[in-house]
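task queued by scheduler; priority normal; single chain, no ligands, no partner chains; default sampling; output format set to structure tokens
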Amino acid sequence: MDTELFPAPSGVDAHDPILALPKVSLHDHLDGALRPQTIIELAAAVDHELPTADAPALGQWFRKTADSGDLVKYLQTFEHTVAVMQTADALTRVAREYVIDAAADGCCYAEVRWAPEQHLRAGLDLDAAVAAVERGLDEGEAIVAEAGRVLNTVQVLTALRQNDNSLAIAELAVRHRDTGVAGFDIAGPEDGFPPADHRRAFDYLHSECMPVTIHAGEAAGLDSLHSAITACHAQRIGHGVRIVEDMDVVDGQGSLGRLAAWVLDQQIPLEVCPRSNVQTGAARSISSHPVTGLKDLGYAVTINPDNRLMSATSVSREMRGLVDHAGWDLDDLEWATANALSAAFAPLDERERLLEDVVIPGFERVEL
């Protein structure tokens, strides 16, 4: 791949064999994936003041500010990225660059989530905003295909749990399900805003057979997870690492509570984002992150970047961290990738094709 057009992601050596592994990203926020230089250029066009106009320094500012140990403070960094994503052209550019960066990360399939209701300040309506992002994804895929790589991208539309707009966003997702939208999510401050508060939206989505993932088990605990799974029909859980609070397990031995056992037995996929979890206080370190214990117990864990900008990360960097600090090997990475592809909001034939034609051969060609 052209390393000038597709440079290695932040924090990853350009010769790291992990870069060559085919990857699946399920938990990837568009407004958390901007390039610092793009933010600077878009901010200048709308007269938005940034902490600095130097791209490397701005990237460092985002990472350091996100290292707060608190989800609410972490989310405050998005004030700058959302501010520069208020026009169709800006949304299209950000989406196009996201696809190119995901390809540089080695992704063969990526779901990018974002909250359309946050992007209406300059006159866009919800449908126009979704269409602008889809144009960017299509343009990015064309660039990637021209370079000889395989990458399929779709949108997951996010409602904000602290607002009362989830039904409108659910209806928006269903309207665009045949033009690039593959699923629905709720995000935002988790503690104090349970998923069941949005049951009307989730009941509607369930009636329309629209896939759902829900942020739960990150800043809030078992009640949040229980609500997401039982009341809101979640097919996947965003983060979910606090499921460990419902188990008493040491060195693989012990007992599981009813919820933990249900998540394991039903193989409900967990969209784990290790580096982000350390930043928000959901985990202490990569080496002690619950994802390794969950993997060893057989939970359907997947590995994701969450916010590439705020965590200076990528799927490749998350994988490298687990290999270097938590003892993961190539088989573990392939297993998590297969989990992610199995859980993807894509048609079965597409998932099977990517597994057989891209993921399995791709892992066979790499040695760590």
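post-processing summary
- Residues 273 and 361 are 25 Å apart (CA to CA).
- The first helix runs from residue 36 to 46.
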